[in-house]
Design the sequence.
């Protein structure tokens, strides 16, 4: 998992020590604890928490750590595997019953993860009992927090402990400039579009005209948003030596795609998309970059091709059969048509690429969706999913935790991706789902 992920904080402990109460206090919910969702994570509840400028996912592990068979190897491994996916652990104990063998076992599991954990001694209803209750737990060398959830005592200390372990939120994705690359075959109008865009936007850095410099990226502002256009100098210089043009173009577009967040794949409307464009699109997809198809020279196409948009669409579906949901914007770089539509689409795509779904929304959707289709099969068992979480990448990427990630076929992945796209209107956004192991029963 990348370090940009929301930190995951798990509450573990025996039955009735107060895990759900703590969960409800911190998340400020009174939601009844939904257990026994058939087939899947019947017992893990996740809620994002935003507190004092910090954000994390709080996880009530209820059912898995409450199992009577915590001593059974299988359940134990399941808990261990799950805890390997979290960042911080809160071990809740009952201060009134003192330290019993099951507590030791749970604490040992927490210790073995190597993750920071604190021992919360609950049900200390009188302040003077605190020291006595704590004494039992000193041997574990963890931070000990006495509390009474019923009286709301100790909760502040718990929150302080959590937030002290969580770094401040990363700079919001939205304020980073969007890096755009215009790619496509020679002579489709890339340089012309580039000039159009820069000619009608506020430039932040002017490159020195006429100097033979390496590719210079140009920063500009349009509709109050910051962008960086890649390889502008190279585009505007527009190699005119006929030989080399194709090779240079192919090389340059690879370079640009790698640097970009969003690619404008430009094609000549008169010609339509070709196999070469399909190859470029494939590299964009392989690099998981956002993409908009720009059909240029519509001033000519409109005159020469009857119903040209319809014809063009059909060509797109035929040529890009593996990615038919691509957005198309029609432009004339020469006449300056279509620029507003293009930037509207760029803004929309950027928003979708920066989409951050709450873990609870995501999982409600996820479990609804996987019920709709037969579970993938691994060997003789069904693949069982535990939960889905979003990584902080743009475009959005997800991690699904399952008992047998190898059983999640590409077809099943595509099924999930298609449903995510439908649910959150993410057409044209290359979404990825990683599967990670988490052992089940
Ligand atoms: P690049 O190789 O993709 O950078 O293409 P250029 O921007 O150099 O354009 C190739 C040729 O197409 C030039 O002669 C441009 O003037 C012309 N061109 C570019 N955009 C348009 C357009 O929208 N309509 C028309 N009619 N011609 C265009």
Sequence:
């Amino acid at each position: 998992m990348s370090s940009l992920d929301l930190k995951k904080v798990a509450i573990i402990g025996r039955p009735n020590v107060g895990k759900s109460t703590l969960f409800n206090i911190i998340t400020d919910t009174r939601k009844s604890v939904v257990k026994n969702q058939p087939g899947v994570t019947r017992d893990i509840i996740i809620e994002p928490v935003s507190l004092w400028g910090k954000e994390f996912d709080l996880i009530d592990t209820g059912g898995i750590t409450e199992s009577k068979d915590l001593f059974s190897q299988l359940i134990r491994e399941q808990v261990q595997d799950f805890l390997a996916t979290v960042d911080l652990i809160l071990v809740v104990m009952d201060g009134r019953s003192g330290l019993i063998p099951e507590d030791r076992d749970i604490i040992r599991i927490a210790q073995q993860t190597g993750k920071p954990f604190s021992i919360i001694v609950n049900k200390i209803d009188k302040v003077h009992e605190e020291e006595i209750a704590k004494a039992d737990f000193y041997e574990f060398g963890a931070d000990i927090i006495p509390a009474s959830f019923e009286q709301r005592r100790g909760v502040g200390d718990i929150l302080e402990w959590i937030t002290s372990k969580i770094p401040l939120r990363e700079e919001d994705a939205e304020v980073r400039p969007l890096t755009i690359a215009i790619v496509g075959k020679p002579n489709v109008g890339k340089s012309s579009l580039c000039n159009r865009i820069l000619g009608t936007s506020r430039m932040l850095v002017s490159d020195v005209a006429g100097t033979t410099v390496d590719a210079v990226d140009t920063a500009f502002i349009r509709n109050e948003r910051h962008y960086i256009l890649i390889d502008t100098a190279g585009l505007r210089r527009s190699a005119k030596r006929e030989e080399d043009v194709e090779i240079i173009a192919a090389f340059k577009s690879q370079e640009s795609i790698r640097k970009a967040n969003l690619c404008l794949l430009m094609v000549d409307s008169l010609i339509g998309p070709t196999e070469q464009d399909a190859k470029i699109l494939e590299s964009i997809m392989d690099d998981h970059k956002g993409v908009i198809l720009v059909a240029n020279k519509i001033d000519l196409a409109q005159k020469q091709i009857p119903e040209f948009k319809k014809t063009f669409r059909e060509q797109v579906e035929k040529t890009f059969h593996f990615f038919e949901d691509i957005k198309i914007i029609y432009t004339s770089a020469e006449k300056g048509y279509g620029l507003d539509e293009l930037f509207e689409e760029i803004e929309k795509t950027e928003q979708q690429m920066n989409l951050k779904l709450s873990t609870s929304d995501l999982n409600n959707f996820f479990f609804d969706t996987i019920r709709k289709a037969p579970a993938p099969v691994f060997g003789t068992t069904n693949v069982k999913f535990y939960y889905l979480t979003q990584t902080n990448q743009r475009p959005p990427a997800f991690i699904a935790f399952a008992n047998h990630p190898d059983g999640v076929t590409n077809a099943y992945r595509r099924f999930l991706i298609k449903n995510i796209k439908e649910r959150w209107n993410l057409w044209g956004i290359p979404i990825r789902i990683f599967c990670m192991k988490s052992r089940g029963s």
Observations:
- The pocket of guanosine-5'-diphosphate is lined by residues 184, 186-192, 235, 238, 296-297, 299-300, 332-334 (CB under 6 Å).
- Residues 32-42, 206-215 have pLDDT under 50 and may be disordered.
